[in-house]
Amino acid sequence: MDQSFRTRSVSCLLTCAFTFCVSAQNTRITQPIDAARLHTLPGNTRSEANPRNDRGKVADTFAMDHMFLQLQRSPEREQALKSFIDQQHDSKSPNFHKWLTAEELGRLYGPAPQDIEKVSQWLRSNGFTVNTVYPSGMSIDFSGTAGQLLGAFHTEIHKLSVNGKDHFANMGDPMIPEALAPVVSGIVSLHDFRPHSMRMPRAQYTVAQSGVTLQIVAPDDLATIYNLKAAFAAGYTG
Do residues 39 and 175 lie in contact, with contact meaning Cβ atoms separated by under 8 Å? Predict the structure, then answer.
């Protein structure tokens, strides 16, 4: 038997064994959920949420729909996933181009289902509606009110005025019971700020650079130049 084949076979077996062990790992939420022992989720407050922009606390009944609780993998699963991704791009690996579905990603590399259920139960116990758990196991879509957020996450939602526009956002980093900290990394969408478009329209489609005049080409121009529109119209996307 070829030595390189034996080496790859052993490597594959070790990888599969490690993946199996990782997928069968114990849950990470092992302590009772004690509301008196809190953990702060740092980096979850926008810079615009400051006294200069503050226009006061919203009503407790203020609806907060489709927030996302961001979960995190164990260090072991994170490392296993990084290793697997490297193998997906290694033409000599048996996992080369072995792409995973979201469900497979969650089963092999996501948080343990028991932990996800414990977090979901904690949300429900605080009055929130759990809308869905995403197949990857990395986020939970939930809805509630500002009052429920204050009670569960210990952060107030305030009205803000930023550059003449009305917004709302949490005024401090949320906190969760310490027992949930190994699985929960943060909350997305405690505010209504949206990313700004990076698109910058140009009046001219030529630009001078280092004494050379360059013609700016847009994707549609390339499709025309290389006669790709017929292929696109037939359903080919590359």
Answer: yes
Given a cut of 50, is residue 22 above it in pLDDT?
no
**Structure confidence at residue 13 as a pLDDT band (50, 70, 90):** very low
Residues 63-91: pLDDT tens digits?
A: 999 999 999 999 999 999 999 999 999 99
DSSP 28: S
Q: Scanning the structure block, which residue is given the tokens 């650079």? A: 209
**Three-state DSSP class for residue 196:** coil
- Give me the amino acid identity at 128: F
Rounded to an integer, what distance in angstroms lies between the CA atom of residue 235 and that of residue 62?
45
* Over residues 174-181, mean pLDDT: 98
Residues 183 and 62: their CA atoms lie apart, in Å, by 28
pLDDT in tens, 121-167: 999 999 999 999 999 999 999 999 999 999 999 999 999 999 999 99
> Token digits for 125?
């116990």
Q: How many Å apart are CA 215 and CA 110, to the nearest integer? A: 47
Query: What H or E segment, with its residue span, contains residue 146?
Result: helix 146-153
Q: Are strands 63-71 and 54-57 parallel, antiparallel or unpaired?
A: unpaired
CB atoms under 10 Å from CB of 88, counted, come to 14
Cα of first residue to Cα of last residue in the chain, in angstroms, is 40
Distance CA 134, CA 110 (A): 11
pTM of the model: 0.73
Angle, CA 144 vertex, CA 143 and CA 145 arms, to 5°: 145
- Per DSSP, the residues of 151-190 read HHH---EEEEEETTEEEEEESS--EEEGGGTTTEEEEE-S
